[in-house]
Amino acid sequence: MSKPLVLYTAATPNGHKVSILLEELKAAYGNIDYDVEKINLSANIQKEPWFIAMNPNGRIPVLIDRSNTTAAHPNGFPVFESAAILLYLVQKYDKEGKFKFESGSNEESQMLQWIFFAHGGVGPMQGQSHHFRHYAPEDVPYGKKRYGDEVVRLYGVLDIGLQGRDYLVGPGAGKLSVADVNVMTWVRFHKHAGVETLDAFPNLKAWLDRLLERDTVKAGIAVP
Question: In b/e form, how buried is each residue of 106-145, taking b as 16+ CB within 10 angstroms?
Fold first, then answer.
């Protein structure tokens, strides 16, 4: 029997952030479950017409909510862009606000600020660092240095944001929210971006270690 949600994904930072949140929601509420469709990126499956119909950008992840059908989407409502998927999931399925904050609150604004920071900064810059270090067809020292230096700078921003805190947003030491989930999957791959150790960022290092200890995070990283 089909589950209410289906995630089209691959083992990437953007894919893992969605599967981690789904595992957190499943553990928190018990009545949320999802199917997984693994996309072979090297075969360019994500560029095929059936996939483009779900996401015109031809990228993973894509979430289909089979419980949300319309005349335009009789098989379920599609959501693309990883941060948008996180926000959709907490808006629709996090009824008790375990991973989000009250609508219109300062905390919600702060959560969105960190999501936009990561989505516009950490992800794209670290993705370029990965490319020039591991996938570029020729050695481009400028590209390696440019994006490697920017990753280090952005990690410094996160380290400042985490000073005296367990999580990025929330009263006191904060609480786990989609602000954390949205960026931790990138920081997890810091060595791939040329940052061998997080020792220069003690707050960030402690935060990442704390998240990686969660069973839900381990389960999400194992998808697909």
Answer: ebbebbbebbebbbebbbebbbbbbebbeeeeeeeeebbe
Please give the helix or strand (H or E) that residue 35 lies within, else none: strand 34-38
CB 178 within 8 A of CB 21: yes
CA 195 to each of CA 43, 157, 179: distance values in angstroms, whole numbers, following the listed order: 30, 15, 22
Calculate the CA 114 to chain-centre distance: 12
Cα–Cα distance, 142 to 144 (Å, whole number): 5
Distance, CA of 70 to CA of 88 (rounded, Å): 16
Split at pLDDT 50, 70, 90, the class of 11 is very high
| pLDDT at residue 2, rounded to an integer | 83
Cα–Cα distance, 13 to 123 (Å, whole number): 8
Q: Can you read off the two tokens belonging to residue 207?
A: 């935060």
Query: Measured between alpha carbons, how far apart are the two ends of the chain, in Å?
Result: 19
**What is the mean pLDDT of the segment spanning 92-110?**
98
* Structural element, H or E, at residue 34: strand 34-38
- Percent of the chain beyond pLDDT 90? 99
**Could you check whether the bond before residue 124 is cis, i.e. omega within 30 degrees of 0?**
no
Q: How many residues are present in the chain? A: 224
Angstrom distance (rounded) from CA 77 to CA 88? 11
